Amino acid sequence: MTNHIPSSDPAVKAMLPRAKECGVETVWDRYQAQQPQCGFGSLGLCCRNCMKGPCRIDPFGEGPQYGICGADRDTIVARQLIRMMAGGGAAHSEHGRHIALTLLHMAEGKAPDYRVRDEAKLSAVAAKLGISTKDRPVEEVARDVALKTLEDFQSQDYGTGANWLTATLTPRRLKRLKDAGLLAHNIDATITGVMARTNVGCDADPTNLVLGGIRAAIADYDGMTLATELSDILFGTPKPIVTAANLGVIKPTAVNIAVGGHNPLLSDIVCDVAAEMQEAAMAAGAKDGINIVGICCTGNEVMMRHGIPLATNYLSQEMAVLTGALDAMVVDMQCIMPSMPRVAECFHTQFITTLDENRIPGALHVSFDEKHADEAARKIVEIAIAAFGRRDPKGVRIPDIKNTAVVGFSAEAIVGALSLVNPDDTLKPLIDNVINGNIQGVCLFAGCNNPQSTQDESFQVIAKKLAAANVLLLATGCGAACFAKHGLMTGEATEQFAGPGLKAVLTAIGKAAGLGGPLPLVLHMGSCVDNSRAVAVAVALANKLGVDISDLPVVASAPEAMSEKAVAIGTWSVALGLPTHLGTIPPVMGSQTVTKLITEDVKDVLGGYFLVDPNPETAAEKLLAAIKDRRAGLGL
């Protein structure tokens, strides 16, 4: 492990010696300290679901082959896997519930700091959900949308799909899921069902268990979709905007506030309040006022709506504090390292948690709820301004590394760009170019960072290889952040890396949109919860062609999958019919039965399947092969 390269990001490489100089332990140090990692856990053969254990199965067949209760390797691996799916689904859907409740409270006048910023999106969502908008006040429609959405957490009608599933998937996909018993009716009940059936003495059939996990992943898709769509109503639907990414966006002469986590409810208000408090920051000696930067998916949220520059993605969040110029880092939920307060203690940085259910020892806690959002945001900005006065200018080390990024390609923005080419039939330019081969297919990049891989490297290798083969590239989450940091979200990257067909299409659309050149090589679609935007584009294409999603030359890739959320996303991607690449080997290899279920057998039931390959070169070849297979199925 001594030759493991931590990151391909030049800013991270510049900061790692700084960490050693300051005596700061980073995520890569802790990764090395964990070597060798538990082989039983890596294979999924360790069970801790009751206090008779923990139990583990000998992978070589020489030691124990059954847990104390009698569970075999297939049962144990399946139970652990689907608990990960349920965990990921719980995280995304709790995010969605918070957004839905805020919309409801706003409509009822209980959350005065929020408003409907996109009335057109509200009308479109209402139409999807079968809610009338004619001659009705905006707040009344918003209330009905929120209540209809909250039914997806409450419905007890097991035979009916949740509202957001039936509103957003193709009829064929809905039927396929229903026939397989996978059409989730209630997010909470579905996730609770997984936790119940994996308890001691319950479901032990690996096939039945995995199917239950897939149902939980479908509930995850539901929660992600409603979170994205309602966020657009409250904060605006993203449109293309030019910004920048990497640690060089932190300014030495400004009060620097990093917003991190996943939920835009607070960070969006912080952006508004910071704009109002610029003079206070300047009065404190900050020549450039207040500079908001993003980290992780909250960073993606404010980047695509406000043009806020992105400092970095998940794995390198500690590096932002190591610059010595970050005055405050404010976080909400998910993908926040508990190490951050320890790093902040080495500097003047105030590390601030905000959600009462997500506290971290050593952090300053500013309690946030949507009914007092402005008050909390104002307090946070005041704390950051005060911290600026304690900054040691001699300890500031900001790498002069950043790249331009054109971001904010929501499904609406993509369709809008296509309409400039053909206003009478907006999807026709895309369909025509798929048919004639200028665009061979589409790949959605998603997922996290994982120290088992060289940070950001696999994303870039696969993307460049697919782009050269004329595959249209979409990205969300930390994958999107990777491409932004490395300069691949620009027209110049299209000129350099795109194949001739893809380059021609992106150039034609870019010029029609008034850019004077091509669209970016990789289209930024938002945070990891925004993967549903890519599904919306695929569903529109499938409906236009009269086929299912599983018939389209569309694939997905998570080269550095890390979290339970990534497991859930990858699973619903498969359930919706997409060949889905994982660059991190999930904890299933201890069971040939489970491994075969998710990589082969599921294809017959749902059309999608997992491609597991840590090698980005061969992974790209497998994704291209899957695209060609789908094209052949369409007669292309």
Question: Nutshell version of this structure?
Answer:
The protein is an alpha/beta fold and 636 residues long. It is 50% helix and 11% strand.
Poorly predicted ranges: none
C-alpha termini separation: 45 Å
Q: What structural class is derived from the secondary structure elements?
A: alpha/beta
In CATH, the architecture of the largest domain is: 3-Layer(aba) Sandwich
pLDDT averaged residue by residue: 96
Number of domains: 4
> Rg to the nearest angstrom?
24 Å
- Determine the CATH topology of the largest domain: Rossmann fold
Strand order of the largest sheet: 6-5-4-7-8-9
Overall form: globular
What's the story with the biggest beta sheet? Answer: 6 strands, parallel
How many beta-strand elements?
A: 16
Contiguous helical run count:
26
**Portion in beta strands:** 5-15%
CATH class of the largest domain: Alpha Beta
Assign a percent range to the helix content.
Answer: 40-55%
